[in-house]
Structures are given as C-alpha cells and as structure tokens.
Amino acid sequence: MEKMWNGGSGIKSAWIVVDLVNDFVSGKFGSQRSVQVAERTGEVIGKLEGSVDIVFTMDTHIRNDPEFRVWGEHCLQGTESSELHKSVSKYGGQRIRKRHFDSFYESDLDGYLRAKGVRNLFISGISSDICVLHTAAGAYFRYYGINIISDLCASIDESSHDTALEFMRKYYGARIIKAEEFEKEIAKWQV
After folding, report:
1. Chain segment 17-45, per-residue pLDDT in tens
2. Are 111 and 65 in contact, with CB atoms under 8 Å apart?
3. In 3-state terms, what secondary structure has residue 178?
4. Which UniProt keywords apply (predicted)?
5. Cα(81)–Cα(124) distance, rounded to whole angstroms?
6. Model pTM?
C-alpha cells in the first residue's frame, strides 16, 4: 500500500520535483550548482522514497516550440536532453511531461494530484526564478498549500534565486524550508 505523508493534519502532501532534466542539470542550462541540487535531491529521495508521493515534472518541447524564440532549442522531445538526470532517474515517482514554465498549465499534474487527494505541495527543482516560481503560482491559483525546499532549488542565473524565493513567500504564501526540515517533517508524521 502506498504511503502518503499527511503532515498529521489529514491533508495529503506530495513533492513536486521540477525539471531535473539533463538540459537543466548538466546540459545547455546546467551548472555545478544544478548538479549539486540534483545529487542532493537524489539523496533525499533515496531516504524518503515510499514515504511521500513524488512527482517529477519534465520540460519537454516539440520542434519549433514558440518558447525557443526566448530560450533557444532545449529539452527536445525524444532526446536525452528532456530526460531525468541520472541523479534522480532511478527513483520511482510519477513522471509528467510539460511544455510551459508552470508545471500545471496544459499538463496532467493537477488531475493527478486531485485524484490522489493531495492539497499540500513541497516544490523543488530548477529554475527557482522560472519553472519553480511559475509552478508555485499554478499551485497558488489552484488553492494548494505551498512549501519551497530552498536548498533543493537552483536558478539558471543564481543571482535570481533568493529574489524568487522571497517573491514566492510574499505573493503566494509559500513557506520556505530546507531539505533537512522537510526530511524531519516527513519522518515525524510517518505511521
């Protein structure tokens, strides 16, 4: 039977891991910080797997996607660039492909979470100031509780990381926590 952490309040939670795909970790937009975030995320998943519902969102684009006008070609469907990075690919969890910054927009994410009865989200991933931020907005507008795991996030432009965290806190009511706190909360409420 699948376990789902409910924070002791009866409110089911899930962890949304945003875009730890090759192009954002070690490819076109990758960085040493992104690799560290992916590796640390893999470690945390290894400890918590089976204790919390994990959803990996995966940026995936078709040829000539309009987004390429801004960012250039990346995460092309059917290529390794849109697949999960090796640090997290071996772990179980729902995989949801997306084409937009907001993981909810025109994807199966909201339907999946609602079918599971999830109302509270922990969000981490890349990029803090783009896809993580817009996914938090999507969650806010759909009335989910929002928790951002700050040290499991990275930005393509790291100078924007802290600004994005503060924006999510201020405008979406996101609680900003560290991975260690997240792990303790999950362990505390496990049955």
Report:
1. 999 999 999 999 999 999 999 999 999 99
2. no
3. coil
4. Hydrolase
5. 19
6. 0.93
What does the alpha-carbon distance between residue 46 and residue 42 come to, in Å, rounded to a whole number? Answer: 6
For residue 168, being part of any structural domain is answered with: yes
Q: Which two tokens stand for residue 67?
A: 């987004």
Instruction: Check if the beta carbon of residue 23 is closer than 8 Å to that of residue 30.
Output: yes
Residue 179 CA to residue 29 CA, distance in Å, equals 23
164 within some domain: yes
Return d(Cα 28, Cα 118) in angstroms, integer.
33
User: What does the block give as tokens for 88?
Assistant: 């997290």
Region 68-88 average pLDDT: 97
Identify the H or E element spanning 68: helix 68-71
In b/e form, how buried is each residue of 9-21, taking b as 16+ CB within 10 angstroms?
Answer: eeebbbbbbbbbb
Q: What is the CATH number of the domain that holds 52?
A: 3.40.50.850
Whether 7 is in a domain gets the answer: no
What residues make up the domain containing 130?
Answer: 12-189
Tens of pLDDT along 83-127?
A: 999 999 999 999 999 999 999 999 999 999 999 999 999 999 999
Query: Which long-range contacts link 92-97 to residues 24+ away (Cβ below 8 Å)?
Result: 92/49, 92/54, 93/17, 93/45, 93/49, 93/53, 93/54, 93/55, 93/56, 94/53, 94/54, 94/55, 94/56, 95/55, 95/56, 95/58, 96/55, 96/56, 96/57, 96/58, 97/57, 97/58, 97/60
